[in-house]
């Protein structure tokens, strides 16, 4: 992924923290000129041990741009309002996911992994927190812990 010039704080507003991991923070924000809601992954470069790349696949979260902000790499990406699979599982604790729903999620994850492997990427952190859904139930993966091999 190539880093774009400029400070994304000039084009984004209304930052709200929605998550935190070992390498940084995830916020939602709004683009000033379009009103589009986006997710912003703010990663401390000192904690990064891999190279994040821009992938184009229906089951991988779309990356819009990236920028260096002080010691952080900010990746501005598609915001998925369906949330993480972890949340869906917790909400449905009283009525379990049926076999067809489980198969749909599994298929989306496997398609994302197949694509990433074809791009030379090994994913090291597959878990329900990092499997995201669109409002209509499509599976997307942000690839937060991947590394490239030759």
TrEMBL record:
It is an enzyme of class 2 (transferase). InterPro entries: Kinase-like_dom_sf, PAK3-like, Prot_kinase_dom, Protein_kinase_ATP_BS. Coiled coil: none annotated. Its EC number is 2.7.11.1. ATP binds at residue 41. Residues 12-150 form the Protein kinase domain. PROSITE patterns: PROTEIN_KINASE_ATP (PS00107), PROTEIN_KINASE_DOM (PS50011). Keywords: ATP-binding, Nucleotide-binding. GO terms for molecular function: ATP binding; protein serine/threonine kinase activity. Signal peptide: none annotated. It comes from the Eukaryota. PANTHER family: NON-SPECIFIC SERINE_THREONINE PROTEIN KINASE (PTHR45832:SF3), SERINE/THREONINE-PROTEIN KINASE SAMKA-RELATED-RELATED (PTHR45832). This is non-specific serine/threonine protein kinase. The lineage of its organism: Eukaryota, Metazoa, Chordata, Craniata, Vertebrata.
């Amino acid at each position: 992924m190539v880093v774009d010039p400029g400070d994304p704080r000039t084009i984004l507003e209304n930052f709200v923290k929605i998550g935190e991991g070992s390498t940084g923070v995830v916020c939602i924000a709004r683009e000033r000129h379009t009103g589009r809601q986006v997710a912003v992954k703010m990663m401390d470069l000192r904690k990064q041990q891999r190279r994040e790349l821009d992938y184009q696949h229906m089951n991988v979260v779309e990356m819009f741009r990236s920028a260096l902000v002080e010691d952080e790499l900010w990746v501005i990406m598609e915001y998925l309002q369906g949330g993480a699979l972890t949340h869906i599982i917790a909400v449905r604790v009283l009525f379990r996911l049926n076999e067809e729903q489980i198969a749909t999620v599994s298929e989306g994850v496997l398609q994302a992994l197949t694509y990433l492997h074809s791009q030379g990427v090994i994913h090291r952190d597959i878990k329900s927190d990092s499997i995201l859904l669109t409002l209509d139930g499509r599976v997307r993966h942000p690839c937060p812990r991947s590394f490239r091999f030759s």
